[in-house]
Design a protein that fits this description.
Layout: H1 2-13, E1 24-25, H2 26-35, H3 46-56, E2 63-64, H4 66-80, H5 86-97, H6 114-119, H7 142-145, H8 164-171
Antiparallel strand pairs: 1-2
Pfam families: p25-alpha
InterPro entries: EF-hand-dom_pair (IPR011992), TPP/p25 (IPR008907)
Family: Belongs to the TPPP family.
């Protein structure tokens, strides 16, 4: 029963930053049923899950408590496991839910394609784009994007910058 409560709490806070972990809304109840494989598409569908949710919750409430959650599982157990007795079906449905947590389905994965690698290879960049990266391929940041003015008195990219003082001293 402790694992059942943990699963209830994990699903109740999933996707909601303000959730306390004491109540499930209809969306998270449906997610719990889907992730724990209570919904099998034949005996139990998402419609059945929604009907059971509205049956066990209080008339004006939009959420169910842990006790109502247990009653909802009792309602779904005989429907999900038809050949078993009521107690066996309830134990089987508890085994499906116990210790489970929400899964992230449909999360975008990073595409690894040769085309992307070729386009993002900084060693092949030319022109002004090449100036934005150092030899290792790391970006230079602001230095690579903007032409930062050096207030030395020399023209930009002058090869003999900083040699004036040595020339003047040698001539004297």
């Amino acid at each position: 029963m402790e694992q059942l409560l943990q699963a209830f709490r994990k699903f109740s806070v999933y996707g909601d930053t303000k959730a306390t972990g004491k109540e499930l809304n209809g969306k998270t109840w449906a997610k719990l049923c889907k992730d724990c494989k209570i919904i099998d598409g034949k005996n139990v569908t998402s419609t059945d899950v929604d009907i059971v949710f509205s049956k066990v919750k209080q008339r004006t409430a939009r959420v169910i408590t842990y006790e109502e959650f247990q009653r909802a599982l009792e309602e779904l157990a005989p429907k999900r496991f038809k050949g078993q007795s009521k107690e066996e079906a309830l134990q089987s449905i508890h085994k499906l839910v116990e210790g489970r947590e929400p899964t992230n389905v449909g999360v975008t994965k990073v595409a690894k394609a040769p085309m992307v690698d070729r386009l993002t290879d900084t060693s092949r960049y030319t022109g002004s784009h090449k100036e934005r990266f150092d030899d290792s391929g790391r970006g230079k940041g602001r230095e690579g994007r903007e032409e930062i003015v050096e207030k030395t008195g020399y023209v930009n990219a002058y090869k003999n910058a900083g040699t004036y003082d040595t020339k003047v001293k040698t001539e004297k």
